[in-house]
Amino acid sequence: MKKPLYLALDFPSGTDALRFIQDYDLEGVPVKVGMELYYKEGAEIVKTLKEQGHHVFLDLKLHDIPNTVRSAMRNLASLRVDVVNVHAAGGSEMIRAAKAGLLEGTREGDNPPLLLAVTQLTSTTERMLQEELRIPLTVEETVVNYAQMSYEAGANGVVCSAHEVRAIRQELPHSFHLLCPGIRLEDGDDHDQKRVVTPNRARELGVDSIVVGRGVTKADEPQKMYQLFEKEWSYVNR
Ligand SMILES: O=c1ccn([C@@H]2O[C@H](COP(=O)(O)O)[C@@H](O)[C@H]2O)c(=O)[nH]1
Q1: For the whole model, what pTM was predicted?
Q2: If we measure between CA atoms, which residue out of 147, 153, 201 comes closest to residue 178?
């Protein structure tokens, strides 16, 4: 799929998520299932969304010892999701194990899910990194470092903020997938996100895919807002 915009289905239940899709004519759009929805509904919601024709990014951000991550990824691959992720902070051995688990769990003839590694969350600031986590680097330095390590360990790409895209592109091949949450329209509410950009800017920077949640799901007119994000991102009708 070329340059997807993933709608983050951060809803308390599957009923809420499916109703939202139906109410606002979002059938078949790429979606992201995160912890809130998955921990409530489990694999069933993923199966339902796949049956309904959605491209599914399962955003569970695994972070555990390599053996555990390998077994978990084997099970996630069997759900035939399109994208999964781990925290890059789990290290290269864990990322290699994730990749191995995905290959083991993928049915013959299918493509394994894309494996992305989360670098620094888009809610992280340089102050948090340096003062709370005591990492004496800039956000950009840690993100590029995680991206290089993830690439060498076999990840297909990373989750980062669009702020770091240029720096990553200087170091790694263009085929390395850069997926960016923290996307807001010019006058949008940032909520708890700290490193945000507009869909327009993300496109200009060469981001491969974006995630949009509350900008659509909490809007007064969700369908209209989805179309606005989509239009800026894909540069249609201009
Ligand atoms: O660094 C990260 C990694 C994941 N996310 C997830 O993306 C969406 C963003 O939602 P908004 O409502 O558009 O802020 C959300 O599901 C996060 O869990 C992220 O924001 N940043």
Answers
A1: 0.97
A2: 147
